[in-house]
Structures are given as structure tokens and as C-alpha cells.
Amino acid sequence: MIILGVAGVSLLVIFYLYIRSEGLRRELVAYRRQVTQLSNESKHIEDTVEALAFEQQVALGKKLTQAKQYGHPDANRIKYTEAMVDAIVNVVVDSAKGHKNTIESFKKQLGKKTDISHNDFNDFISKQDDKVKSEWHKKSIAGYLSVCTKLIENLNDDVTGES
User: Could you tell me the pTM of the whole model?
Assistant: First the structure.
């Protein structure tokens, strides 16, 4: 009789564990589906951010070309501004992924694609107006784009004689 009781309890425990494992298996499948969806959404957002950054780079590049066509006398200002505009896509994508802030990402781009040292660039930024400096020190994507825009506006204002 005791053997039948132990066998009955063992069957109940086995049945309970089987039902519990099936519930956990279903939860696992649901979580895998969610992870796949979130991964797809994340990839789509990354692609969108990259496309928007590219469009911003093209638009700012066109404005910078105007200053270059007018023959701005300060070639270094154009060179530094152009380096910033050329790095927009890489800086925005790195920053949006959370790998680096914009200053670190731009420093990496300076080393890869230009002959400008980070110290020279910091000297250039330190000579800009307070609005540019404050946006630069925010270390955000919006701040980086604002600095690019403000530098280009300053170049175009210089060549057109506006202030």
C-alpha cells in the first residue's frame, strides 16, 4: 500500500513538472518571438537614423559648398567645418547605437579620415562663439548637428557680409 502511495505521489509530481515545463517552453517561445521583433525594429531604426543622417550630411554639404564657391578667405575654418560635415553619418550612427558620445566618435573620425589632430580641432572650437561651444559640449547628436549648422551659417554670413 505504501508503495502505491509513493508511486501515486511520484506520478503527480511528474505530471506537475511536465505541465510546468510546457508552460515555461511556451513562455520561452513567446520571449524569442519578442526578441526577434525587437531586433528587427532596432535594425529598422538604425537604418532610418543612418538614412536621415546621410540626408542631413548632403543638405549641410550643399550649404558648405556655397561658402567654398564664394571663396571664403579662411581655409582652415572651411577645412574643420568640412571635416565635421563629412563625419555626420558615422558620428550619428555611433552615437545612436550608444557606443560613444559625439565628441569621442568625431575624434575617431578625425584620426581615420583627416590630417587634423584632435588638439587642433579643440583649438578651433575654443575660438568659436559661445553658442557653438555650448552645443559642442553637450556631446549629443542634436548638439553636433547644431554645431555643423552654426559653423556653416557663420561661413555663409562672412562671405555674404551679414552678421
Answer: 0.78
